[in-house]
Amino acid sequence: MSVFTPLRAWTARILRAAPLIAIDLHAQTAPSPTQPVAAPPQSTEPFTVRVVGKGAPMILIPGLSSTGDVWNETVSALCTNYQCHVLSLAGFGGTPAVMADSTWLPRMRDAVIAYARAQRLNKPVIMGHSLGGYLALDIAATAPDLPRAIINVDGMPFLPGASIPGSTVESVRPMAQQMREQIRKPSAQNNRMMDAQVRTMVRDTTKFALIRTMMNTSDPATVAEARYSLYTTDIRPSMTRVSAPVLNLHAWVAYKGYGQNRERLEPMLANQYAGLKNQTTRISDTAYHFIMFDEPAWMLQEVRAFLAAH
Question: For 57-77, b where at least 16 C-beta lie within 10 A, e where not — what string?
Fold first, then answer.
């Protein structure tokens, strides 16, 4: 059985044109048909920033359909030693959206680089979750001189490679195109399916409402383009340009019922990070995708030990 069998199964369904949006690690929800949510207002700003604490600079990037609120507990724990620049990306969780097209993801990458340089952040640590982890890795490859260190919390340089062995950008493009169109047109059926799917993303049930609210207030067009870009962009070859040390934190246990285990996860991660010169991978056996919610003490221990060494 391949890695992340639920995503593989969903891929097969979408190729048969079933009315699903997603069952991967970054599921998008539709607003309730009885409680429609207005799309976020348009903006020219790629993200909003909240700065907390004093000390060495750290940039924290949330994942797909999430805001910087996913980092609240992490920031509270780190802000005595780090000046935390907490981002909320345009179009996610009610943050005003910008033009959503195939350039959205690289525009976010370039905007973070420009922000760090404009603020004269000296060798910031860049921590990202999910899509934010992908961005952190892409930033390190695009501007190798910028970061002191990268902390990737359950992101991937090539997301389809986590579930479809041997996949390429071209082989997944038709599926990604169909997925993009379905996300742009949310439905009540998709919405009903998301509750169960979100429960595979976070074990801490007290965080369920927060995640759902952020997803429900995200701009569907932005989510559609961001997810399409994640599926059709493979930055594994550019990992050879990364000079900063990288800590990769991953989880698997949510998919234990589908045959997932560490033995299957480890070689997939080795393939994802083969180009990195200096990387450390740690795997939680208890957390779901939102590691910062499910195992905050474990995550902070790993982050602090890594930063102490780098």
Answer: bbbbbbbbbbbbbbbeebbeb
